[in-house]
Amino acid sequence: MKIFDAHCDVLYKMFMDRRIDFQNSGSLQVDLEALQASDLKVQCFAIYVPESVHPEMKFNAALYMVNLFYEKVLKPNPQLKLIRSTGDIDMLKDDETGGMLTLEGCDAVGCDLLKLKTLLRLGVSSVGLTWNYANCAADGALEERGAGLSSFGKGVVHELNASKAWCDVSHLSERGFWDVMEWADYPIATHSNCYTLCPHPRNLTNEQIEALIDRDSVMGITFVTEFLSGKQSAAITDVLRHLEYVCSLGGENHVGFGSDFDGTDGKVTDLEDARKYDNLINELLKYYSDIQAEKFLFGNFYSRFPR
């Protein structure tokens, strides 16, 4: 079955360690070998600029990661294609995989919409307004103030609407979430789980999940163990528990997967990297029909991707 994975942090790892080779890294959870060993049809590659980077250098760091994506991921591997629309996905051949650029947090653009427009022109198709803390656009999920979108943040959403780009609410404060629901044309949650099952600030409440469903959006269940079980360890059954909970709220057509591979230390047992997606598929098919599993793995994100 085809897979649409809405989030990984490969570019961050390659930025932090310039020796990593995407073809066969030995250290990445998603690399060329893993893509070929799995049924990944679309893999989202996040641009995440760590807090350790000086504010004046964050945009340069983002551009460096864009260059890594084009020069080290796509260029040496003609079977990997840039994805910016469902039309691009439809054009993929059976042996090809789509790579989609996303921005995890607007820290990289500071308070400058021109920098955001530049990243959108370079291929970014989904933008998360924050990581965990505050920036010019909004407050993150771990920011004690808990504010929503700033005037600049509303300007960011306006640009995303104009570009038909996803506005990602993962990592956003709850008040910011509700602002996005009001202002964004294409809201999405690329990698978040259910707060009721695991009360972590990064997870979404029932009301938030239902709002995404009402907006005909999608949330990607993530494999971050702290968001699945609240521990450093988790099992595939924990992933299915969060998936089923979204379905119980009416979200069968509104849930997918955003692994966060290469962005977290904890690993789900038997789902340690992209090569192990078959284990997840086998477990899904024990409880859901082929049609349901196809929606979770691929169809729900694919059908909401702007055309």
From TrEMBL:
Pfam family membership, one = Peptidase_M19
Tell me, which GO biological process terms does this entry list? proteolysis
CDD domains assigned: rDP_like (cd01301)
Example GO molecular function? metallodipeptidase activity
TM ranges: none
From the Swiss-Prot or TrEMBL record, give the protein name: Dipeptidase
Q: Which organism is it from?
A: Cytobacillus firmus
Starting at the broadest rank, the lineage of the source organism is: Bacteria, Bacillati, Bacillota, Bacilli, Bacillales
